[in-house]
């Protein structure tokens, strides 16, 4: 990939604005326009569409860098990448179904995700929204949550369940244009962390999406986990992992700065960095970040290298990737939160002052554990795949 468009000057501006966005619970409009103008949003696109054909491994590295300066900016931008990156991967594997998405993104369109739903602990694989076949398309009804990029998206990628045949329910994946009728956005986002993402609710009230923007109709559950579905998890979870790793690395930097600048009247040298327990805690932080970096970099590199041959993957290859993807996301977000929590312990009471960077990172880091796949699902998927249990078997806990 060519030299990064994320200059130090740009990143420092992002960091300088992050606290304001968080305090005001406002969208990162200035950051977004800088990213758009720099060409950052087109990283995944093939050259014919104005991009640099960056792979998952390359985009994830850039997102990790961005997250160390502005985690919420990176997280929301990720929703665009996990569609454009997936569309590019499909083309690498010989599938042009989503070529139109690359053309649209090349023309400046922004994509977002409408997968979050209450009452559905298997996002993407199942849906609590309905998809009813109508002439020329599907009609969607449901309540979508956590719609990052709500102020700026042009297309919302969403899904619903077609239960017209109760014995063989299907998940319908489609894309809704902003000017579509019969939906509205509820501005409810006022969360603990990642506030600048403006992840509002989207209410679908019989939205009709034409067939040309219905990408796939697949069996419900893991039986429908084709490259499109598995690729959503790859581009979402692997980049989530990198984002929270970048956040954790920033916490390490702040802790280092704290330890090398704080003075103590109770330590002979007068410097906190000589305290053996603080050294111990800091070392744990460093080693945790190094460990998750190695894990997620290897996974991103393996996916990027093997996806061109996805058409020939055996079921165990796809299953193995599914387990690695959700497992790596779980490990990274758990480790990142522990690292930031340790940073607060080491930096002491001043580290939790409202408006400080570490206090904001602590709240942002907590959000990572809520992204899919969450802990229960990650453990279920990893265990069942490695034990040879069909993840779709019912009763689920039989």
CATH topology grouping of the largest domain: Butyryl-CoA Dehydrogenase, subunit A, domain 3
Shape: globular
**Largest sheet at a glance?**
4 strands, mixed
Strand order of the largest sheet: 1-4-5-8
CATH superfamily of the largest domain: Butyryl-CoA Dehydrogenase, subunit A, domain 3
Structural class: alpha+beta
Number of strands: 8
Distance between the termini: 48 Å
Along the chain, the helix and strand elements come as: HHHHHEEEEEEEEHHHHH
The overall pLDDT, averaged over residues, is 96
Name the poorly predicted regions: none
Return the CATH architecture of the largest domain: Up-down Bundle
C-alpha Rg (nearest Å): 21 Å
Q: What is the helical fraction, as a range of percent?
A: 40-55%
Query: How many structural domains does the protein architecture include?
Result: 3
Tally of separate helices: 10
CATH C-level class of the largest domain is Mainly Alpha
């Amino acid at each position: 990939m060519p030299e990064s468009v994320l200059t130090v000057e740009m990143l420092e501006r992002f960091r300088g604005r992050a606290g304001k966005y968080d305090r005001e619970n406002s969208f990162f409009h200035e950051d977004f326009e800088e990213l758009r103008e720099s060409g950052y949003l087109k990283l995944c696109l093939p050259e014919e569409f104005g991009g640099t054909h960056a792979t998952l491994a390359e985009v994830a590295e850039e997102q990790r860098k961005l997250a160390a300066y502005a985690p919420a900016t990176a997280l929301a931008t990720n929703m665009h990448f996990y569609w454009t990156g997936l569309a590019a991967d499909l083309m690498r594997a010989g599938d042009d179904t989503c070529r139109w998405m690359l053309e649209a993104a090349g023309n400046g369109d922004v994509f977002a995700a409408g997968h979050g739903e209450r009452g559905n602990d298997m996002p993407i694989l199942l849906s609590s929204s309905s998809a009813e076949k109508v002439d020329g398309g599907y009609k969607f009804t449901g309540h979508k949550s956590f719609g990052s990029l709500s102020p700026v998206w042009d297309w919302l990628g969403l899904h619903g369940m077609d239960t017209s045949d109760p014995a063989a329910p299907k998940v319908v994946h489609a894309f809704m244009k902003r000017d579509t009728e019969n939906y509205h956005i509820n501005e409810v986002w006022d969360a603990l962390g990642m506030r600048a993402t403006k992840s509002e609710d989207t209410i679908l009230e019989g939205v009709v999406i034409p067939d040309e923007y219905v990408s796939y109709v697949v069996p419900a559950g893991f039986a429908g986990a084709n490259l499109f579905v598995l690729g959503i998890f790859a581009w979402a979870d692997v980049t989530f992992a990198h984002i929270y790793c970048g956040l954790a690395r920033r916490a390490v930097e702040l802790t280092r700065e704290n330890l090398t600048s704080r003075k103590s009247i109770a330590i002979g040298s007068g410097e906190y960095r000589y305290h053996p327990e603080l050294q111990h805690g800091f070392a744990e932080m460093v080693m945790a970040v190094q460990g998750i970096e190695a894990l997620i970099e290897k996974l991103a590199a393996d996916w990027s290298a093997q996806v061109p041959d996805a058409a020939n993957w055996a079921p165990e290859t796809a299953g193995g990737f599914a387990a690695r993807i959700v497992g790596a996301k779980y490990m990274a977000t758990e480790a990142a939160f522990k690292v930031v929590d340790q940073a607060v312990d080491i930096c002491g009471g001043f580290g939790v002052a409202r408006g400080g960077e570490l206090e904001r990172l602590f709240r942002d880091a907590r959000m990572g554990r809520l992204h899919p796949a969450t802990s229960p699902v990650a453990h279920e998927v990893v265990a069942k795949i490695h034990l040879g249990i069909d993840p779709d078997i019912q009763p689920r806990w039989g």
